[in-house]
Amino acid sequence: MPTNQRLDYIDMAKGFAIALMVFGHTFSTYQNTPIMVWIYSFHMPLFFLTTGILYGIKENKRSRQIFKLKSKIFTLLLPFFVWSTLYQLFISILAILGGAPAKATLLSNMKVVIQLQGNAMWFLPAMFLSTCFFFLTVRNRVLNIITSCLFFIVGIIVPECNCYLSAILRAFIGAVFIALGFYGYKFYTKEVKNWQLVCLFVISLFTIFMNGLVSIASRDYNNPFLYIFNGCIGTLIVYQMAMRMRQIKTISGILKYWGENSIKVLCFHGFVIQIIRLLDYKLLGNLLPRLGIFEGMVFTILIMAILTILMPVFNNFFYWAFGIQNKNRE
């Protein structure tokens, strides 16, 4: 399979997952519904697994794996602190204009940034820490497997203590997914037969609903072994679907574009959600929540359309805030 096709379907899978993330953040209610249980079972693990899969592909080509700490700081931590700070300022201003006390609101919201929390932004420091943990031992396979097992155990059993420990424990689970993607990349990059895909999908549905609603952000895993299993199988299914959709140029092109710009979607979608909710409240009298189960669908289409239109602006004028030194280089 040519390399460009491989990377195309990986970008498509990321694009699908980032759209599901946006969908998951658009509901006023209906959080514990079958569609949300399904989405949360794999949509964030997919990004950690993909990181490991890409490392595995590079390793197979005998490309030297070099962990560039400076690069990770600029591409993961810089966007977190810039856009998370701006987002918290933005929602603080909205709250203050709505009558909330200025000082208390601002301090409370800015504290979220310092604690490495907030909206979907937790993912960026978690990915940074996860890759750091993975690369500490990746050169020794036995040691890496042992540490991954320890990360899994500690990440599951250690209770909440403070926000910083929580960020580290999330990253431990992320590092486990990276290791699984790294060692099992051939499993994900080989196309399976249609009947095998159907069987995987049926099995995954059974285990997903057996485990219920989960979230790596809040460290709600229910059965941790099922959580890891569902994250891996769900990612495999999305990869397989992406492989089959490459011939549908319009859909594959949109998904690929979202995947290539997934961090930008992650950073900006919160702003768009707040603006749409404000306009909906002021102009339409809270129409979106009255749509019921269709709220998320309509909301997500609006958000992704707006972000797709605005993406060239982000790429041309705000590339520096994503650790990109040249606006012509993604």
Counted by DSSP, the helix tally is 14
Fraction in helix: over 70%
SSE string: HHHHHHHHHHHHHH
Please indicate the percent range of residues in DSSP E strands (runs of 2 or more). under 5%
What is the radius of gyration computed over CA atoms, rounded to a whole number of angstroms? 20 Å
In whole angstroms, the N-to-C terminal distance is 24 Å
The poorly predicted ranges are 1-5
Shape assignment: globular
Q: Major sheet: size, sense and barrel closure?
A: none
Q: Taking all residues together, what is the mean pLDDT?
A: 90
Total strands: the figure is: 0
Topology:
Blueprint lengths: L2 H22 L9 H7 L4 H16 L8 H29 L4 H13 L8 H15 L3 H17 L5 H21 L1 H5 L4 H18 L12 H21 L4 H12 L1 H23 L10 H23 L13
Structure description:
This protein is an all-alpha fold and 330 residues long. It is built from 14 helices and no strands. Helix 1 packs across helix 14, helix 3 crosses helix 8 and helix 13 crosses helix 14.
Brief account:
With 330 residues, this protein is mainly α.
Main features:
disordered N terminus; mainly alpha; 330 residues
